Amino acid sequence: MHRTNEPRPPASRLRIGSAPDSWGVWFPDDPHQVGWDRFLDEVAEAGYTWIELGPYGYLPTDPARLRDETARRGLSVSAGTVFTGLHRGEAVWEETWAHVAKVAELTREAGAGYLVAIPAFWRDDKTGEVLEDRELTPAAWRDLSRLTERLAHRVREEYGLRTVVHPHADTHVDTEEHVVRLLDTTDPDLVELCLDTGHYAYCGGDSVRLIETYGRRLGYLHLKQVDPEVLARVRAQDLPFGPAVAQGVMCEPPLGVPALEPVLAAARPLGVDLFAIVEQDMYPCPPDRPLPVARRTRALLESYLDG
């Protein structure tokens, strides 16, 4: 019997932000990308107050300078990002940890609380060269789950950060089957989910259903959409992710899928503070394109939250 006087869990406090990705930034240094100072100026001008670090080395890596550059623009950092290949087992652990520790230290010094961990690509995201089998063996899945837990535990103990795993196109954690498998084989107290709505839709997943089923594992959101027509061409041609992005597979909301208002509505009742970071993959893109898109997207998301 339902008791009407039972207290309801508080609604999640959704903190909207953006990231270098939405300015066409994929690499620490690339002639096709805008400079880091322009990114910081424009993300603040677009009305965001939260950002991610993006690829290590794009923003200043000196903690004092990074804090100064972000603070004087009214910006705060929510997370850093690492790519990992933990399915390869113990042989890659030390090398992986050396990279993770470097990023985690800067992330902590920037005042952020999250480390976004993206699994390694099975094919090169620029050239399409196949690097590994598309499917992991049972042994590789065991290594992935076990070492992801070890990574999350060590990151928490040494840097005080929460690790959120980011399913990503052209990695071994992409489809609903693979995402659920990782969640079901890892400790929920250690390993949380960074749900990227665009990547999940790209790989055939339903973000709302995932939130409704695994909401207690949701630690972080990346908001983006895919263009269904472009995605159909990408799938028909089996294009790698990089060329797909160059063709515009990730599009400006609300022009694609999934609809973001139901995603936010599904996340709000979870009763946790949650970052919702806009990440519209646009590499490469004209330098004057990101700012107007960022303004419109922020206004759209704010309208969903105010509604």
TrEMBL record:
InterPro entries found in the cross-reference section: IolE/XylAMocC-like, Xyl_isomerase-like_sf, Xyl_isomerase-like_TIM-brl
Transmembrane stretches, start-end: none
Every Xylose isomerase-like TIM barrel domain range: 40-243
Top-rank taxon, per record: Bacteria
Protein name per Swiss-Prot or TrEMBL: Xylose isomerase-like TIM barrel domain-containing protein
Organism: Streptomyces gougerotii
